[in-house]
# Entry
Amino acid sequence: MGSFDRSFERIENSMELDKMHQRAEETLGADAINPDDFPRYDKAAVAADKEYVREMKEKFAAEASPEEREAKQMADVLEAIVLQFGEQGYWFGGSEEEEVTTVKTADYDDIKGGTDILVEYSRKNGGVANLGLGIDVTYREDLASKVERIRQEVASGCLTTLRYFYSPRRKIRGEQKEVPRVIVGVSGAHARDLGRLWMDRQNRKLSEHPVQIIFLQEMELQLDKFLDLAERQQHAPAARALADALAIVRKALADKDDFIEEHRAEIEDYRSKDAVYAALIKYVQGIGVR
# Structure
């Protein structure tokens, strides 16, 4: 491929990503929790949080390299897809008895706490099985700092706190402590493939995509390792929250046994070619040898 062809391909890919990102911004912006919807909060504190978000966004816009800005765009696209199909496509489970809801966190909890999406599992008869599981969505392979941050939270016995927690199912707003948090991700090439399906409105293909098993397996491994750490450190509240989340994720995987069997070769091929999956497994497995 000549230099002209490579330049044209880069321009074409950039234009494609711009279109994906525009839709992602619309999706995330429409669904994000709004701090102004928390009337019981001190107005000055809310204003300070919003100012923090504004400053951080301005800093990124001023200091980020073109590569970092492109990376943020791709991350937003993947996040929007996970937000939509985690619920609509039942990627994280769901059945006649159990409802799964995905919620875009407030910008403050995203930037400050590293939680992009909140997943809530609830029984359709009204009972809540688990108040929430925080998800950090990525397509980057440099996961050491992300994994270490969660490890430190678990080791200290202080799981993630969402300042702006909202449960659509229970209509609850407020601060939520002891929220287990995990990372889910796939490589850039796989993220872009998902983005293309998303832009083409290939909802059925996305609902039946093997990536859902990759995500659930990533979640299961992390929760298992973090639970072991919490138990060894004798942090009972954190251990209970992690155990509840792990049980739900394992149930979601068990409910997909038929899907896994039907798509086994495709899932294994996808997993074997995904560098982010491999990196995450490597870093998380290292937790147990500390």
